[in-house]
Design a protein that fits this description.
Blueprint lengths: L3 E5 L9 H16 L5 E5 L10 H11 L9 H18 L3 E7 L7 H10 L6 E4 L2 E4 L4 E8 L13 H13 L3 E8 L8 H17 L2
Parallel strand pairs: 1-2, 1-3, 3-6, 6-7
Antiparallel strand pairs: 4-5
Length: 210
């Protein structure tokens, strides 16, 4: 039985965000098609996702040097424990849905913080004499909304957020990384409703066969 992890990186709700609305539509259709499959979710703008700051880096160094966990400062313990929870939650799934807007050619900083949190040697990947090897099986979908068009035309090639997300997931071992783009609603406001409706239909179709 598959477990789906839904990772939302938009601070607004379904009434204010194309990506959030399409993401929730995907979830509804997926639940209908797979009623027995567990679904977990994390809303990155409401979740505790520690940054890899001085506390975390020094804490890891102390643990590697043999210092016991309970000897670390309480705030360092809290951050390291939470990071462990995040990577364990990631590893408990085998289907991943990332939902985000495109901001300045990339995704929001909350998404980068989450990817940093789950990129852990020995957990999601490992180093070998032949190079790094991913340790995660499964597949992923990135639902992304952008006001402009980046799949073709003069801005093609500027979608660095999806490129980075896909590269990171493949580094983890997730070879099947798909994208559902909702694009052009600001560039072509006269087509705004049609763009949204097409994306919702695409979400339904993907969910039924995913």
């Amino acid at each position: 039985m598959s477990t789906l992890l839904y990772i939302n990186a938009h601070p607004l709700d379904v009434h204010e965000s194309f990506s959030a609305a399409v993401g929730e539509r995907f979830l509804d259709a997926y639940r209908a098609a797979n009623p027995s499959h567990p679904i977990a979710r994390i809303d990155l703008y409401r979740a505790d996702v520690p940054l890899l700051d001085a506390d975390v880096l020094r804490g890891w160094n102390a643990l590697r040097a043999g210092e016991p966990f309970d000897a670390l400062a309480p705030e360092t313990q809290r951050k390291l424990f939470r990071l462990g929870e995040l990577v364990d939650g990631f590893l408990a799934a085998d289907k991943y849905v990332f939902v985000s807007p495109m901001w300045n050619f990339s995704y929001p900083p909350a998404m980068k913080a989450y990817l940093d949190a789950v990129a852990v040697a020995g957990k999601t990947f490992q180093y070998t004499p032949q190079g790094p090897v991913g340790l995660v099986a499964g597949k992923a979908l990135h639902i992304q909304a952008s006001g402009g068009v980046y799949s073709e035309g003069p801005a093609a090639g500027h979608d660095f957020g999806h490129a980075h997300l896909a590269a990171t997931l493949r580094f983890f071992g997730i070879a099947d990384v798909r994208k559902l783009a909702i694009e052009g609603h600001a560039q072509h406001p006269e087509r705004r409703d049609a763009i949204a409706e097409a994306a919702l239909r695409a979400a339904d179709e993907l969910a039924r066969n995913w």
